[in-house]
Design a protein that fits this description.
By secondary structure, this protein is an all-alpha fold. Helix content is 61%, strand content 0%. It has one domain (2-302). The protein contains 13 helices and no strands. Helix 2 runs parallel beside helix 6 (134-158). The radius of gyration is 21 Å and the shape is globular.
Length: 308
């Protein structure tokens, strides 16, 4: 097995294959998100029935159900009745694919070098994954799941369906558990510069940092009724940490406000959540650089003039 993984690590397209694989999985999950967003507001089951045309209710054939590709091959029309299929469907699928591909590129193909706790003696690139670092794979799956879940909540917000608060319990508990047992999944420490509590163990620090991020996210989530805000911010705080969450929230709020003023059309509930999904995925993929910028800004603002 070792010989096989070493041979794969030498393959020049190994990183590219992992990124493409991440896009494929993300697009398939994006297709499922489309089903959830369409059926839940109608009170329909999301697992019992096959995908059907919303107009004629004809079952969609397997060859037409490929994410993004199926819509393009059909030219945006149902094969049975010829009615138009909204371009929102392939856009959601492509967004899911890009989110997962971005995280796969930064965390799996990149060897975890941009994770806050990812700088270790492991080799860079895909070698770290192929040599059996299961924490890296689990962390990437956790981050991808969080990003896709916030995307789902944002789309349900736009559809006018109110997500129950109980939907937060399982993903939040899983994020806290991961931060407490896997250093790679833990956000930056409790201190403003991302450092941990002096003298505390690494796993305890990870759990406390995750709890602090969830608490700050819960407080910020009181600002709006949308699920992507009241549920998404605590969940993102648990994986990003309170420092990065503040930056992500401020940047998303500014971008949403500017976009709402510059772009045509009425603002809809869930617009903030869509922006939050994109900025949070970027922040998850670039934890270490963002914390470094945070530390640099803090030193510049609070440095003593005497000490330079």
């Amino acid at each position: 097995m070792t010989a096989v993984t070493e041979w794969l690590a030498l393959w020049p397209w190994a990183e590219g294959a992992i990124i493409l694989f991440g896009f494929a999985w993300g697009a398939m999950l994006g297709s499922f998100i489309n089903v959830v967003v369409h059926r839940l507001p109608l009170g329909e089951s999301v697992v019992r029935e096959r995908s059907r045309c919303p107009n004629c209710r004809s079952a969609i054939q397997a060859r037409d159900n490929l994410p993004v590709v199926g819509w393009l091959l059909l030219r945006g029309r149902c094969r049975a009745c010829g009615s138009g299929i909204s371009p929102v469907y392939p856009l959601v699928e492509a967004t899911g694919g890009l989110l997962v591909a971005t995280l796969a590129a930064a965390e799996l193909a990149g060897g975890g070098r941009w994770l806050f706790h990812g700088s270790t003696g492991y080799p860079l690139g895909v070698d770290r994954l192929l040599r059996g670092d299961w924490q890296l794979l689990v962390t990437c799956c956790l981050h991808a799941g969080v990003a896709l879940l916030v995307l789902t909540w944002a789309l349900l917000d736009r559809a006018g369906w109110k997500c129950p608060a109980t939907w937060l319990a399982f993903p939040l508990g899983l994020s806290l558990l991961a931060a407490g047992i896997m250093p790679l999944a833990a956000p930056p420490g409790l201190m403003p510069d991302g450092s941990g509590w002096p003298g505390a163990g690494l796993r305890f620090q990870g759990l406390m940092a995750s709890l602090a991020g969830a608490a700050v996210g819960g407080f910020l989530g009181l600002a709006g009724p949308a699920a992507s805000v009241r549920l998404g911010l605590p969940l993102l705080g648990a994986v990003l940490g309170w420092q990065t969450l503040l930056v992500v929230t401020i940047v998303t709020a500014l971008a949403t406000e500017i976009g709402g003023r510059c772009l045509p059309g009425n603002r809809r509930r869930g617009d903030f959540g869509l922006g939050l999904t994109v900025s949070a995925a970027f922040a998850l993929a670039c934890q270490a650089p963002l914390v470094a910028v945070w530390q640099g800004v803090g030193k510049a603002l609070f440095a003593s003039p005497i000490n330079g």
